[in-house]
Amino acid sequence: MWYGRDCMATSTERPGFWSRLLPASGGGQFFDLFEQHAERTREAAALLAKMVRDPGNLEQQAERVKGVEHLGDEITHTVIERLHQTFITPMDRDDIHRLISRMDDVLDLVWASAERLWLYRPKRLEPEFGQLADVLLRAAEEICAAMRGLRDLRDRKTLIAHCTEINRLENEGDAILRRAVARLFEDGSDPIHVIKCKEIYDNLENAIDRCEDVANVIEGVALEYS
After folding, report:
1. Is residue 21 over pLDDT 50?
2. Model pLDDT, residue 32
3. Whether this model's pTM surpasses 0.85
4. What pLDDT band is residue 123 in, cutting at 50, 70 and 90?
5. How many domains does the structure of the chain reveal?
6. Tens digit of pLDDT for each residue in 182-198?
7. Which sign, positive or negative, has the C-alpha torsion 37, 40, 45, 46?
8. Which residues of 52-70 are buried (b: 16+ CB within 10 A; e: fewer)?
9. Are the C-beta atoms of residues 110 and 221 closer than 8 Å to each other?
């Protein structure tokens, strides 16, 4: 399995805060896995954004998202397994479990959004689908950047800035959702279309919300070890 370089720096390449506290074989494996999972989420969000922009062959595009989500599940299971096998961990065990669980929630909701687009096939793709998908992709990119910063913690200011940007994006997503739902109900001549779109909106917005949950865990860890 190949993972993109943008989320794959290893502990030997980026020695920092945690490597000074842990044995050579200590917690670097967790940061590798966090970064790999973040990259899978970014990849799935990019596929979803493309799916909204170019809705041809929705089933095939949704299956690509599902494949990435499956890889993310494997990484999540590996983190949980190694958490039970590792005596010395780079951060509190509850934080590790909470972080990978929140990350997995994001990826699950990206897949849920893609699946609804494919299964429901709304008669038209509302412009807010694309707006929310773009916000979600930007939030996933910020998670990738934050994960690289979490490994080291030498630059907490930048790390916290990534978390703050994710929070801002969550607010942006909320605003888009409010406008989208208001417009949808205002032009509610087709109740079935309204129901389909509302569920797709909710999945997209929930995915962005879960990105904020990830940011909150990262920020809490950064502050705890400051």
Report:
1. no
2. 94
3. yes
4. confident
5. 1
6. 999 988 779 999 999 99
7. positive
8. beebeebeebbebbeebbe
9. no
Distances in Å between the alpha carbon of 60 and those of 16, 43, 108, 155? 42, 16, 18, 41
Residue 4 lies in a domain: no
Is 20 a domain residue? no
Give the whole-angstrom CA distance, residue 195 versus residue 185.
Answer: 10
Closest by CA to 46, choosing from 99, 113, 101, 102, is 113
Q: What is the DSSP string of 14-65?
A: S--HHHHHS-TTSTHHHHHHHHHHHHHHHHHHHHHHHHHHS-TTHHHHHHHH
Question: Does residue 13 lie in a domain region?
Answer: no
At which residue do the structure tokens 């773009």 appear?
A: 134
End-to-end CA distance of the chain: 35
- Beta-carbon contacts of 11 under 8 Å, excluding residues fewer than 6 positions away, are 18, 19, 27, 28, 31, 32, 151
- Residue 173 resides in a domain: yes
